[in-house]
Write a structure and sequence with these properties.
182 residues; alpha/beta; Rossmann fold; 7-stranded mixed β-sheet; 3-stranded antiparallel β-sheet; 4 helices; 10 strands; globular
Amino acid sequence: MDPRGKTVIVTGASAGIGKALARAFVAGGANIVLASRNVQALNSLVNELGQEQTLVVPTDVTQRVQIDRLVDRTVERFGRLDVLVNNAGVGLMSSVADLDPDEFQQLFQVNLMGPLHGMQAARPVSRGRLPRAEARSGDSVRLRARATGGRGHQGSGRSSLYHRDGFRSQCSRPSSCTSAQL
């Protein structure tokens, strides 16, 4: 995909893969919307990337109302949404016997419900169903990785592509990367 002129939302943009993707999209000529709960880190990234092509929207992906606001603010600022990168995620390092149900619930909400909220909010906009949206189709990218030793993420390198009604969702698993744990 050529990012020039595209509008891209990246969740989990405050660190690691999300931050690297934001840099790459801006370098490629895209408008970037940075979403994360860590507002200070997002503002620092905007100072690095410049304000012309960037928008910060503090977002907790577990809250559908915040995801709806993220998509609305994106379209208000840039007039379209072309790509949603569902990058926000958390990991757990625990045996089943020691697993804290509240921590597992948080993992479920961030890693599973967050992307669902994002795709549901973005789909009508990216398919041009809202009057102020110009985009005819959109991409949703879900980055999935597992924490290893609390120092980074490692995955299987698998990816898949799903097409239906002009909407594309791509799942990607980076083989390895280093990401700060919050």
